[in-house]
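User: Could you walk me through two proteins back to back? I'd like the raw sequence and the structure tokens for each, with a short line separating them so I can tell where one ends and the next begins.

Assistant: Of course. Protein one, sequence then structure:
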Amino acid sequence: MSRIRIIPKNENRGSKKEGVIVTKQKKLVLDIVYNSHKHPTAEEVFFEARLAMPNIALGTVYRNLNALVDEGFLRRITLAGTPDRFDKANCDHDHLVCQKCGKLKDVFLSGIADEIKNNSGDEIISYELNAYYICEACK
């Protein structure tokens, strides 16, 4: 991911400098996901955000999560039958998903895009890999 300079909403208004304009709410949402040791849902982000900003609305959290995904700061993890979860987008990684409890675990694999390209002959723009397993707690 290329580095994007975050410009606070009240700074450099109308500036053509490269950057993404953010509000205090958007910065808070980003910080919560980046400081999380798990892959939080929007509601989990909302409950944590309310500790720092009691008047923040759930809709504001959803809007900011969606914007941060669109801007490349966060990744959305979509699994059938569960709420979307959000993850840091600062390094390439894949996920192990417990088939019983849904726990997500990061896994760092190299060369997968190259393997797909070698097998298909197509240039790979991006991919998402969710491998399923049974975690230790569910065995």
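----
Protein two, same layout:
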Amino acid sequence: MNCFKNRFCCSAVAIFVAVVCLPVLIQAQTGAVTVQASVSEVVALSASSNFAVPNVQVTGAADRKSLTVDLTGSGAGEQTFRLPVLIRSNSSYSISSLVRSESVGSVTLAPLDARATGRFVASDAAASVVTTNPDVSTRLDLSAPSSIFQGSRVSLAGTLDSPENAVEVTLLVTVSPEAKSAHWRLQLMLSATPGLNFK
């Protein structure tokens, strides 16, 4: 009799577990899972392979967020340089400059043109490059960077070293040395800021 009762109790417990727990198992197996993730906004600057300008040395930062351009020259006449720079980004961006010099009277900076380097560049990336100020005359030894130009997202795929996901922007630099200077030196520091509202 006790054995019968024990078997009955065990069967009842088994049925209870099956009835009560089965919906829970089904819910766990069929429930929706939501995963949230975010991607950091990145803008990378590097020297173009077309960068072959006499008396110009370019040094890139390890994090790709800035470029330092050192220019040297002689004579008092106005001189111009064309500096091709590669930009890769997964967001809109702004490019700023900070200038230091020796024996230089004034410097003017402006983007001259822009072109896509390959198939992984957004269709409007080159056309979206616009000058922040049409006449960007940067004061020497400026304590804060001056904005030069801005643009929309550039890269659709690839890495910071991919050959087909950058916009090449040619920056026109016009240097006016001091009247009596025999030699002059200019250091131009370009920096990139991602994620700005772009219109």
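Residues 2-28 have pLDDT under 50 and may be disordered.

Let me know if you want the two compared in more detail.
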